Every structure is written in C-alpha cells, then in structure tokens.
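Protein folding task:
====================
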Amino acid sequence: MRLIVSILCALPMVAQPGGQAPDLRGVYQSIPDRMTLPGGLKNVGAPAAIELLPEAARQTRNVDLKSDPWKICQPVGPFRMMAKEHTKIELVQVSAMIVMLFEDLSHGMMRNIYLKRGHPARLEETWLGDSVGRWEGDTLVVDTVGFNDKTWLNEEGAQHSDALHLTERIHPVLRGQFLEYRMTAVDPRVLAKPYSYTRYYRRLDTEVMDDVCQDEP
C-alpha cells in the first residue's frame, strides 16, 4: 500500500482550465455521527434510511444477512463504504485521475476517478463501478455507473439494479481541514426516490496502513 502511494505522489497534480485544481491530496477519516463541527456541520443520513420500491423491499426480506459482503471481506461499494464510521482514505491526484486509497482495503479497494474521459460505451460491471470526475469550482463531482450485482445498498440486505447511478460532491471546508462529502444514489428500479447523505472527513497527519479483514461468523 505505501509503495503505491509513494509512486502516485511522485506524479504531477491535476490541472483544470484556468488554473490549478484544489489540492485534495492527503489522508482523511470520517468523523463520528455524534460530532458537530463549527458552523453546525455534521453527518446527515445513512444507507439504512433509503426508501425501497415495494418489490425491492419484498426481495430484501428474503436475503440471507449472513451473506453480507461486509461479513465475508468483500468490497461493499462506494455507497456503503463512504458512510461507514472511521473510514480512512487517502486521495492522490495524478495527471489524468484522482486515486482514492482505502485503509480498509478488503471492503473499500482502490478507486480510480478519471478526469479526462467519459464513461465507456461498453462498461464492464465491477464492485466499484466506473467513476468519472469533473471540477465545479472547488468541488469535485464524481459520476459513477456500471456496478455488478455483488454489493448491497445497506446492511439490511437491500439490493440494487444495474441502473444504480451515484453522484458524489467533495469539497474542502473549514480552511481545508475537513472535506464535505455528499453522496446521492439514484436507482429507478429499486429506490422509491433518490437518496442523499452527507459525511465530513477530517484531514489527518498520518498514513493509511494495511487493515486486515477477517470473516465474521
């Protein structure tokens, strides 16, 4: 993990038209839900609060919760992972993409956010989907599609369809000591309406380490 970070950090930063992109490089960890930051900023919402369509809710009741990807050390996908308390990430900006490294590698893996292309016409569906980013001022907007059927929307067994579409908005707040992270999920075949949650990530003066996962009984 640390070797990968060292190689990526040696590459040039991303430039945007008209100037330099915000420097998001660094290690961040999600704050506890009970914490309130200056200005009243705090975490809002959670994957457990999504509203399912009737058929999707019925299917969820038949899911074996022992097969939760979280319990068997498999990737859980961005929608669940970014909402988890104590999630620690490192953002590394390179010439054509931003790389998001997770300390909890088994559940989070490593995300590539491509800045200089759109989604391919033919997508290979994966746990993390295909992520394309763009800058809106100091906000990184990430559009992700192309998920496989191996991840859940929450720990209660809610599934998603191949129409799942995630939009993330990430920008620095409080003089860059925190990131405000807003996730929105749209899936017209599963969700009764789009759902959004907000998390705040504190910048840390540390490194991401190797977090070994063990299957839960």
Remarks:
- Helices lie at 2-9, 54-61, 78-81, 105-108.
